């Protein structure tokens, strides 16, 4: 996992636990891995380890008070939330976990977590009975469902004299686990183009043909690519989503517009990920005026086929590494494999849609196929899936380039 955290900007949150003393060593271990670290402490954490210690080790002022008149004059918690590439809370007390689960923002750390668009990981530390309590487990399940990573805890002797699960993982183990879940920063200097969302094919000035795609998966993939160091161009159909940090967004509406933008932006790209749910057909003619309801019980629309965007990019002379998506209601694996071959793709990610699956939801599962292998990514938040998928794409991209170079 060497180099995964190199140049990563990590906000380390320290909360009120006897294990807070380990946070001092954790700062050093993160720095040894190449990360830049800034520390946020809760008031109760200051009872266990001094801010001066954390400031000296991190090399930056420690943020503590949400109502600090100096820091908050420049909206300090928002500044830190935007600065962070990752937010890591270690140790995470039962109280902090509860605050995060219910969105309470009565301290700087919980406010920062609510404001950040970056991934969040927590390393719990508490008495074994507190850890086993149904309330704590429910809170953790809520956080996991929202895409927050849970690191640990360990099991063994505890400061209270009891034994059991709830010990904070050792700093080296926390760094190893964070390195595992973070996207490898191996796309520095690479250009990744991602398509996302639906396309709308106009019938008249007020009506269109479309689909149920929310764009969430494509936006999560664009974010994961940016986290991996790539220059990212996101070509999006009509969606109600915020542009991920460090991503250049190109808005389109129709399949034809998405095709033209994809052909243009892939001229200098290294990887193309076609996640958008593009309409296969469009009305052959566009009505300049709104179609009026008539006494007829039927309305006939003549449709014409749209250009196949992913196949067109794959057919380019100097093509990028091309990743397609297959959203199917049945025979998902077979359709995906057929599409992989027919369209000459490097990789395809397939998922089942319909009946509450795939479109418009926060969780998904993917079956990923390439010429020499496959991998199942089980159901998880789309933010998790995007990072796991991006890791596979990076591995296969470099594997192909190494083979072709050889």
Radius of gyration: 24 Å
Instruction: Give me the CATH architecture of the largest domain, please.
Output: 3-Layer(aba) Sandwich
**What separation lies between the terminal Cα atoms?**
25 Å
Low-confidence stretches: none
CATH class of the largest domain: Alpha Beta
Proportion of residues in β-strands: 15-25%
Structurally, the number of domains stands at: 2
The third-level CATH topology of the largest domain is Rossmann fold
- Would you report the number of β strands? 19
User: How many H/I helical runs?
Assistant: 13
Report the major sheet: 8 strands, mixed
What is the typical, i.e. mean, pLDDT? 87
Helix percent reads 25-40%
- Full CATH superfamily name of the largest domain: CoaB-like
Shape: elongated
The assigned structural class equals alpha/beta
| Biggest sheet: strand arrangement | 12-11-8-13-16-17-18-19
Structure commentary:
The chain folds into two domains: 9-181, 3-Layer(aba) Sandwich (Rossmann fold), CATH 3.40.50.1950; 191-285 and 297-405, Rossmann fold (3-Layer(aba) Sandwich). It contains 13 helices and 19 strands. It has helices spanning 22-32, 51-58, 76-83, 94-102, 108-115, 128-132, 134-145, 171-181, 216-227, 255-265, 309-314, 332-342, 382-405; strands spanning 9-14, 36-41, 86-92, 120-124, 149-150, 154-157, 163-167, 191-196, 201-202, 208-209, 231-236, 247-251, 271-274, 281-283, 303-305, 321-328, 347-352, 363-370, 373-381. The strands form five sheets. An eight-stranded mixed sheet has the order 12-11-8-13-16-17-18-19, sandwiched between helices. The chain has a five-stranded parallel sheet with strand order 2-1-3-4-5, with helices on both faces. A two-stranded antiparallel ribbon has the order 6-7. Strand 9 (201-202) and strand 10 (208-209) form a beta hairpin.
């Amino acid at each position: 996992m060497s180099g995964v955290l190199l140049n990563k900007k990590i906000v380390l949150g320290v909360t009120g636990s006897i294990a807070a003393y380990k946070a001092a060593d954790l700062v050093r271990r993160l720095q040894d891995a190449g990360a830049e670290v800034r520390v946020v402490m809760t008031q109760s954490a200051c009872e266990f380890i001094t801010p001066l210690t954390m400031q000296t080790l991190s090399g930056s002022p420690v943020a503590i008070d949400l109502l600090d008149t100096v820091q908050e004059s420049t909206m300090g918690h928002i500044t830190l939330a935007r600065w962070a590439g990752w937010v890591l809370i270690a140790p995470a007390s039962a109280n902090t976990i509860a605050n995060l689960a219910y969105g309470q923002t009565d301290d700087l750390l919980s406010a920062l977590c609510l404001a950040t668009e970056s991934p969040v990981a927590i390393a719990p530390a508490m008495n074994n009975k507190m850890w086993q309590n149904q309330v704590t487990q429910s809170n953790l399940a809520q956080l996991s469902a929202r895409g927050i990573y849970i690191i640990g805890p360990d099991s063994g002797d505890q400061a209270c004299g009891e034994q059991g699960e709830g010990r904070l993982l050792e700093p080296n183990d926390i760094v190893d686990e964070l390195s595992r879940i973070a996207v490898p920063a191996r796309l520095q200097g690479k250009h990744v183009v991602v398509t996302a969302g639906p396309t709308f094919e106009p019938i008249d000035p007020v009506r269109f043909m479309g689909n149920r795609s929310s764009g969430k998966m494509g936006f999560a993939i664009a974010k994961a690519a940016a986290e991996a160091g790539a220059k990212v161009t996101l070509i999006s159909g009509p969606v109600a989503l915020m542009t991920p940090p460090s991503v250049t967004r190109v808005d389109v509406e129709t399949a034809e517009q998405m095709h033209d933008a994809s052909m243009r932006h892939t001229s200098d790209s290294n990887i193309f990920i076609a996640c958008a749910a593009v309409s296969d057909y469009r009305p052959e003619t566009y009505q300049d005026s709104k179609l009026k309801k008539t006494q007829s019980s039927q309305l006939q629309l003549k449709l014409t086929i749209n250009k196949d965007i992913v196949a067109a990019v794959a057919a380019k002379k100097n093509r990028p590494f091309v990743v397609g998506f297959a959203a199917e209601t049945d025979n998902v694996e077979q359709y995906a494999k057929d599409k992989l071959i027919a369209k000459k793709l490097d990789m395809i990610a397939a998922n089942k849609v319909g009946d509450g699956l795939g479109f418009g939801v926060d969780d998904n599962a993917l079956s990923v196929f390439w010429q020499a292998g496959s991998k199942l990514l089980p159901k998880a938040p789309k933010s998790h899936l995007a990072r796991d998928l991006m890791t596979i794409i990076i591995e296969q991209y470099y594997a192909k380039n190494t083979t072709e170079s050889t």
